[in-house]
Amino acid sequence: MSVINTAMKRKIVNMRNSGMQFKDIGKELGLAVGTVKTHYYLATGQPSARRYIPESRFVRYDEPPVIEGDALVLPDVEIPFQDSDFINRVIDLANAWGIKQVIAAGDLMHFDSLSGWEPNWHNGHEKSTLTEKDESALMDLAKSLPKGKQAALIEIIGNTKPLDGKDFGDEMGEARKVLNALDACFESFVWVLGNHEGRLIRAIDSPTDPAELLNIMRLETGKWKIAPYYYCILNSGGKEFRITHPKTAADNAARMLAIQYHQNILMGHSHKLMYDWDPSGKYAAVQMGHCVDEMRLAYAAQRDARRNAHLLGAVIVRDGYIWLLHENCDWESLKRLA
C-alpha cells in the first residue's frame, strides 16, 4: 500500500480533476477506492457522499477480460459436437498468419448431457463403444500386425458405436480430447461464457467460479483465462472489438450492440453469418456463424425448423482488420497473405 502524505493527496486531486475514475486512481496508486475518495473529498473540501450513503460492498461487473493484439475468434464450437474439418482449416490459416491467441466467443462446450431439451430418438446402433484406454490399446496392437491385418483392425475400431452425448462422463471424456488438441495449437486462450456454459450452473444449482470449468476440463490456468462475463474486449491495430455472446439472436442484434456500445461487434450465439455496420459506418457489426456440426445436434437435425443463415464461420482479427471466414473461403490463397 502507498503512504498517504501531502504529495500523495495532491496527486489524487490532480488525477481526479484530470477526469480519471476513482477506481483507476486506486489501481495506479495501490489504494482502496474508498481511501482515494475520502482523501480527495477531504483535500478539496467537498462533502463526501460517504457521510450519507455508504459505498456498496458488492462487486461491480465492469472489468471484462481485455486482450491486446491479433486473435482467432471461434464462435459456438459446442465441443464435442464441433465441425472438426472446418475448425482445422481455420487453425491452419491462423498458424500460417502467426496468430498466437484464441478467443472462444461463448458456447465452447455443448453440455448436451445437461441439456434441458426433451429426450431425442437415438440412431439404434447396437455395437459397444470403446473406452479411450481400450481404443489406444487396440491401435497399438494394430500397429504391430502386418499391413493387411492392420487395416482390417483399424476399420473395426472405427466402426464402433458413435456416442449420443447423454452420458456426462462420455461427453466430458470426448470434450477433453478436443480441448487438449486445441490447447496444443496456440499460446493463450480467453474463454467467454455462453448460454451452454450456463447449463452446468443450472445442473449443480449453485453459483460457482467460472474457473471451475478449467478444472473440470483440466486446462492450465494462466494459459487459459475465464471470467464471469459473456463478452471480452480485444484491442488490435488501434481499434476496439467487443466479442460477445449476447442474450438475443435477432438478425439486427450485432448492429444494435454496435450502436449501443460504440464498438466493433463480433457476436456469437445466433449461428448466423452476417456482416453489417452501424448507421454511421464507423463500427462493424458481425454475426460470426458457428463452429459446431449442427447435423450432430438432434434438436437441430431431426426436425425441420426455420434457421435463418446458420452457417459455419469464424473470425481472425489481424492489425485491426476483420477477416470473416466461412466454408467457401479460398484457404490456400489466404495462407499466401501471411
Describe the protein's topology.
Elements: H1 6-17, H2 22-29, H3 33-44, E1 66-68, E2 71-74, H4 84-96, E3 101-105, H5 132-143, H6 147-158, H7 168-183, E4 188-192, H8 198-204, H9 211-216, E5 224-226, E6 231-236, E7 239-244, H10 253-261, E8 264-267, E9 273-277, E10 284-288, H11 298-301, E11 313-318, E12 321-326, H12 331-335
Structure write-up:
The chain is of the alpha/beta class. The protein contains 12 helices and 12 strands. Helix 1 (6-17) crosses helix 3, helix 2 (22-29) crosses helix 3 (33-44) and helix 5 runs antiparallel to helix 6. The protein is globular, with a radius of gyration of 25 Å.
Compact overview of the structure:
The chain is an alpha/beta fold and 338 residues long. The protein is built from 12 helices and 12 strands. Helix content is 34%, strand content 17%.
Instruction: State Rg.
Output: 25 Å
Overall 3D form: globular
Number of helices: 12
What is the average of the pLDDT values? 86
Name a few traits of the molecule.
338 residues; alpha/beta; 6-stranded mixed sheet; globular
